[in-house]
Automatic annotation (TrEMBL):
It comes from Ditylum brightwellii. Belongs to the class-II aminoacyl-tRNA synthetase family. Gene3D superfamilies: Anticodon-binding domain (3.40.50.800), Bira Bifunctional Protein, Domain 2 (3.30.930.10). GO terms for biological process: glycyl-tRNA aminoacylation; mitochondrial DNA replication; small molecule metabolic process. Pfam families: HGTP_anticodon (PF03129), tRNA-synt_2b (PF00587). SUPFAM superfamilies: Class II aaRS ABD-related (SSF52954), Class II aaRS and biotin synthetases (SSF55681). It comes from the Eukaryota. The keyword ATP-binding applies. Residues 254-477 form the Aminoacyl-transfer RNA synthetases class-II family profile domain. InterPro entries: aa-tRNA-synt_IIb (IPR002314), aa-tRNA-synth_II (IPR006195), aa-tRNA-synth_II/BPL/LPL (IPR045864), Anticodon-bd (IPR004154), Anticodon-bd_dom_sf (IPR036621), Gly-tRNA_synthase/POLG2 (IPR027031), Gly_tRNA_ligase_bac (IPR022961), GlyRS-like_core (IPR033731). PROSITE patterns: AA_TRNA_LIGASE_II. One of its GO terms (cellular component) is mitochondrion. This is glycine--tRNA ligase. Its EC number is 6.1.1.14.
């Protein structure tokens, strides 16, 4: 079957080449020397001097040309985090930070492909929310602010997580990520102890709890007895009496302290003296840099409310238990907008809704799988005291459904706090209504690294091409770290290499392009597929001896088309940039 994608390609090519349609057809090569190189993998296409052009009407031939691609829709369901972490390391997306010194928990380094992907994510966000809107301007504030900023914002007093220590092993845990339950015998109702499990998906938590309960009953008269269903509570709710029986996840004995607050801000000292007056903090969010620049940014851009200020930058949190790879790390990047709106009970809701929709549209425009996304509306205790509403966009990671980003209606809490803390007037004067007010704001806040992880998960794909299993990343061309790979058919044929090099140099002026001249062509395709390169352009003997045409291979369908060399850039432009 000719897939939907190949129809799209065909349509586009028809525009590029109104008279004759060029498509690739697989025919047995007479030149064994060349075809041998092409047999590196299952999608054996004979890109040889015997390949011929065919007309647009020759669809039967074209269908025959397509290798059998059998997608595996279950691939993501079976994907384990260890496999993802290993792929990221192996192909240069993400390395553990300072690995040669045994790493540093909660910190990661982005390799050559990771740096590209991260940059593409940030560029796409900036393009969408700053350049793409007339009512948003950008900002790049310093990471270290005057420490009073954090007093006013409430971070110094309240930006903490509940922590417990294991007195025996000295390990620390986040109390709200540990869940305990009494083990109660069904027959007698007697409580024989407690289990304690770390937050995970329901299945894993249950498995762990059952294992612990079994161990607890083993060697007692109750061995094998039936127990009540576990009633989990998070550890912040444990009483001192319960804590004296709850086992530590590290020692297996009741050696945990009672929970206490742990401030997540990283402290540093500014200047030569290391005294109290020199204490400063690495910002735990980019948002406060926006609030403290509200007057400057509004004034200089002569903006009128509603108006947003956007910022991308590093944030630091001394997470007690960084985990799940880059999902929760200690150093990460945020992309945040503070969108200032007039006050009023009936004003914020449509703006909040609009930012929720726009955030979702942005995420799907990057190729994020909609079927893995969801909404989580915060209510009651889940809502900060000053916030009117907060809705998260969630994503189903291999370790469960988790927050990807938040869209909050924050009222005017932050500007009011900074106005009081600094003694500066942060009112806005509305020319139209002659009203003076402290604006309220909507805050869409998204982590670059968390989105990076979600995009890799979304893109993870497996299929079978011509009978062989293939793993690849189906990144949207918009964010793919490498857009095109240029492959000269043979690396030791000077005219082939020269022609390929010329094309490569031209393409590099527009996109990040890779050059791959070694190994069988099939193996080279696999290498490109595994890192999510959407297009491979192969320069073969027809290119240099016959008609100057090249083949362009599509990563997802593995289909190949033949187009004239001069059409490569317009064709790829349309595919990658959409114009
Ligand atoms: N200004 C609001 C704010 O910072 P948040 O929910 O704490 O809100 C917003 O963070 C987003 O930043 C999260 O939805 C997530 O994408 C990202 N994020 C937060 N903590 C993170 C961490 N430790 N590691 C990676 N990303 C994080």
């Amino acid at each position: 079957m000719v897939s939907y994608r190949s129809v799209a390609l065909t349509t586009l090519l028809a525009t590029l080449q109104p008279r004759s349609m060029f498509a690739f057809t697989p025919v047995a090569s007479s030149a064994a020397r060349r075809t041998a190189l092409l047999r590196g993998a299952s999608s054996i296409y004979s890109i040889s001097s015997t390949a011929r052009f065919m007309s647009t009407t020759d669809t039967a031939e074209e269908e025959k040309a397509a290798p059998t691609v059998i997608p595996n829709p279950e691939a993501y369901e079976k994907l384990k985090m260890e496999e993802l972490v290993s792929l990221c390391k192996r192909r240069g997306f993400i390395f553990p930070s300072s690995e040669i010194y045994n790493g540093m928990a909660g910190f990661y380094d982005y390799g050559p492909l990771g740096a590209e992907l991260k940059k593409n994510i940030k560029d796409a966000w900036w393009k969408h929310f700053v350049h793409g809107r007339e009512d948003v301007e950008g900002l790049d504030s310093s990471i270290i602010h005057n420490p009073t900023t954090w007093k006013s914002s409430g971070h110094l007093d309240g930006f903490s997580d509940p922590m417990v220590d294991c007195k025996e092993t000295k390990l620390r845990f986040r109390a709200d990520q540990l869940f305990y339950a009494p083990v109660v015998l069904k027959e007698s109702g007697e409580r024989v102890g407690y289990v304690l499990v770390q937050e995970a998906n329901d299945e894993d938590m249950m498995k762990d709890a059952k294992k612990q309960a079994k161990k607890l009953l083993k060697g007692t008269d109750n061995k094998g007895a039936e127990i009540e269903a576990f009633a989990f509570r998070d550890l912040t709710e444990a009483t001192e009496e319960e804590m004296s029986e709850i086992p530590s996840p590290a020692s297996g004995k009741p050696t945990l302290t009672m929970p206490r607050d742990f401030n997540l801000m990283f402290q540093t000292n500014v200047g030569a003296m290391s005294d109290e007056a020199s204490v400063a903090y690495l910002r735990p969010e980019t948002a406060q840099g926006i609030f403290i620049n509200f007057k400057n940014a509004m004034g200089t851009s002569r903006a009128k409310i509603p108006f947003g200020i956007a910022q991308i930058g590093k944030a630091f949190r001394n997470e007690i238990t960084p985990r799940n790879f880059i999902f929760r790390s200690r150093e990460f990047e945020q992309m945040e907008v503070e969108y200032f709106i007039p006050p009023g009970d009936d004003v914020w809701e449509p703006f909040h809704k609009q930012w929720m929709e726009d955030s979702k549209d942005f995420l799907t425009s990057l190729g994020l799988r909609e079927d893995l996304m969801g909404w989580d509306v915060h209510e009651g205790d889940g809502l900060a005291h000053y916030a009117r509403a907060c809705t998260d966009i969630t994503f189903r990671f291999p370790f469960g459904v988790q927050e990807l980003m938040g869209i909050a209606a924050r009222g005017n809490f932050d500007l009011t706090q900074h106005s009081e803390g600094s003694g500066k007037n942060l009112d806005y004067f509305c020319d139209a209504t002659k009203e003076k007010y402290i604006p309220h704001c909507i805050e869409p806040s998204l982590g670059v690294d968390r989105l990076f992880l979600a995009l890799i998960c979304s893109a993870y794909a497996e299929d079978e091409v011509g009978g062989e299993k293939r793993n690849y990343l189906s990144f949207s061309p918009k964010i793919a770290p490498v857009k095109v790979s240029v492959l000269p058919l043979l690396k030791n044929k000077e005219p082939l290499v020269k022609a390929a090099r010329e094309l490569y140099d031209k393409l590099r002026k527009r996109w990040n392009v890779s050059w791959d001249a070694t190994g069988a062509i099939g193996r080279r395709y696999r290498r490109a597929d595994e890192v999510g390169t959407p297009f491979c352009v192969t320069i073969d003997f027809d290119t240099i001896e016959k008609d100057g045409s090249v083949t362009v291979r599509d990563r997802d369908t593995t289909e190949q088309i033949r187009i004239p060399m001069e059409e490569v850039i317009p064709y790829l432009s349309k595919q990658i940039d959409g114009y």
